[in-house]
Amino acid sequence: MKSHSLFARILMATDLSAASQVAYRVARDLAVLLNAHLLLLHVFEYAGAASPMTGGIAEGLSAFRQSAEHELELLLLDSAKHGLTVEGRITDGIVSEVILETAGQQRIDLVVMGTRRTTGLERFLLGSTAEVVFRSSDCPVLTAGPRVLTPTGPPHTRGPIVFATDLSHMSTAAVRSAAFLCERTGVPLHCLHVLPRCDLKPGDEDALRRTSAAAIGQMIHEGGFAIGDPLCAIACDDDASTGVLDYAAQHKASLIVLGVRHASPVAAHLPGKIACQIIAGAACPVLVATDQLRSRC
Q1: Helices 274-281 and 129-136, interaxial angle, to 10°?
Q2: Which residues are within 8 A (CB) of 240 and not within 5 positions of it... i.e. 6 or more apart?
Q3: Locate the UspA domain: which residues (predicted)?
C-alpha cells in the first residue's frame, strides 16, 4: 500500500528571475507527480524603500511590482496548464521571514527555493536566504542550487536519491522524506555515510554498511514505505562535502537529502556549513530536513 502523501502542499518561493526557472520547474514537476497543491510566493522587498518625497523612485518600484505581477501570472498559467491546483501571492517584507511565516500559516509540507550564483562561495555560505529558511523551517526545504540544470525525462528514468546520514535520531525525518520520494518516483535509494580516510580499519566498512542498512531499513519500515532495500555505501573523504558531492556526481543522483539541526550552525554528523557547501556544489536539488519538523512532515 502506498503511504499517505508527505508533501500535499508545496510552497515555491521565487524571485521571478531567469535563474529561478529551474527551481520553479522542479517544484511544478514534483507537484504534478504528487498531485499536490502549489503556492507560488514572490516577496517584494522594496515596498518600504520609497517615501512621498521620492516620486521617481516610487514610480520605478511600481513598475517593478507590475512586472513581478506579470511574471507571476505567467507561472500560474503554466502551472494550470499542467493540471495543478495553484495560487500565487506577492507579499511585502524580508524574504526569509515571509517564507517562514507563510509556510507556517498555510501548513506547507515542503518549501522549494532556488539560489543564484554569487560573487563568491563564502558569500553564499554565510548569509543566503536558503540557509536561514532551511535551518528555521518546520518542514523540509528543497533547494535548487546554482549548478542545477532543468530536469529532463520522467522521474523514474533519473538517477537515485542519495541520503547522506549519520544514523542519528535527527535523520529520521530526512530518511522518511527520501523514502517517500523514492516510492513515488520509482528511483532507488542510496544511503551514504562519509568518514575521514583514517577512521576505517579492516572489516569496519562491511560492519558499518550492515549497521546502516538495519537502521535505515527500520525507519523505512516504520514509515510504511513500499520501496526496495536501500543501497548503503561508505565514502572515505576528509572533506565530507566533497565525499557527498563526488558520490552524487558518480551515480548521477536526482536528489540529495540531508538532515540538519534546527536553527544550529552544525549540520547532521558534520561540523560547519556542510549543507550549504553541498547545495552550492550539487548538480541536483538538495532537500534538507531538520530534527524538529512538524509531526506530519
Answers
A1: 130
A2: 194, 269, 270, 274
A3: 8-142, 160-288
The residues near 65 (Cβ < 8 Å, ≥ 6 apart) are: 44, 90
CB count within 10 Å of CB 218 equals 12
| Residue 205, C-beta contacts closer than 8 angstroms, at least 6 positions apart | 234
267 by DSSP, 3-state: which?
A: strand
Q: According to CATH, what is the number of the domain 155-290?
A: 3.40.50.620
176: confidence class by pLDDT, cuts 50, 70, 90: confident
Q: For residue 51, is pLDDT > 50? A: no
Domain ranges of the chain: 9-144, 155-290
The phi, psi pair for 108, rounded to 5°, reads -75, 140
pTM, two decimal places: 0.86
Q: What fold is seen in the domain 9-144?
A: Rossmann fold (3.40.50)
Residue 175 near residue 216, CB atoms below 8 Å: yes
User: Which percentage of the chain shows pLDDT scores above 90?
Assistant: 43
Q: Which three cell numbers stand for residue 196?
A: 575521514
What's the rounded Cα separation, in Å, for the pair 121 and 202? 37
* 45 compared with 84, residue with greater pLDDT: 84
Domain 9-144 and domain 155-290, same fold? Reply is yes
Over its C-alpha atoms, the chain yields an Rg (Å, rounded) of 20
Residue 101 has pLDDT above 70, yes or no: yes
Burial 86-113 (b: 16+ CB within 10 A, else e): bebeeeeeebbebbbebbeeeebbbbbb
Weakest mean pLDDT among 63-67, 186-190, 284-288: 63-67
pLDDT of 100 > 70? The answer is yes
pLDDT score recorded for residue 109: 96
